[in-house]
Amino acid sequence: MKNISAAARLLTHNIKNSSMAVSCSRRDFFPDKQAILSAFTFFKDALFLYTISPKLSSKEGELNDFDKRLNKNLNVLRREIKHHLCFSGQETKADQAGKKARDLVKRFEEELPRLQNLAISDIQAAYTGDPAAKNYYEIMLCYPGLLAITLQRMAHFLYENNLQLIARIITEHAHSLTGIDIHPGAKIGKSFFIDHGTGVVIGETTEIGDNVKIYQGVTLGAKSFPKDENGFAKKGLKRHPTVGDNVTIYAGAAILGPVKIAPGKVVAANTWITEDII
After folding, report:
1. Is residue 200 a contact partner of residue 194, using CB atoms and an 8 Å limit?
2. pTM of the model
3. pLDDT tens digits, residue range 156-186?
4. Of 114, 222, 266, 276, which is most buried, counting CB atoms within 10 Å of its CB?
5. How many angstroms separate the Cα of 271 from the Cα of each of 80, 161, 224?
């Protein structure tokens, strides 16, 4: 407890003495994790249950109610992005943080139809690729791979827009629910299916093509970490695999480093891959 208290005092001291504290209010420093997770649970469900068009219209009945709930959760996201911008020091002025947050949320809203199309392709891939799948509803409600992929795709948008903290909150929540660890930085094509899923790890700079299927226990990871002059792992380097279209990777395979798996290849179970498969 003493160590935690000391860390809290140090953080408070740094906040009080930083330039952020001049304009960003104290409540803007910590994003609300539960509010973020609640909002993205709604966004995930919306992709599965509602028709989302590029221009979200307010129609009668259920869709009008959906629009209200969508706007409510978009407002939550806007608030938490503002908090993130202040917390990370990306913005030091509260009004500038608010404006940037509004712009980012507008772009996220415009991204929802594309994300929905990707989710539909993932559901279809699961139905096609798993003979045990009885219908689409079973996949939407029960398959951990779909949950992890859908949340990662939304988190990837935030990651690409320099909102890594919120993105990691989302994907680590998915990790805790499913046992599937997909970094928000990973780039994943359409019609991606993770069968069973437990123990899958997909690293930050992984690139996955279209129509890829992987099984439980697969690792798309790094082999080694180059160090800088201070002994810290260098940031921003390509260190994870690139997987081509129509690849299948069976259970327990470990593909490590910035290797390339050519389109159409099949990687056997429990293999250790550190070189290109062309």
Report:
1. yes
2. 0.87
3. 999 999 999 999 999 999 999 999 999 999 9
4. 222
5. 42, 35, 18
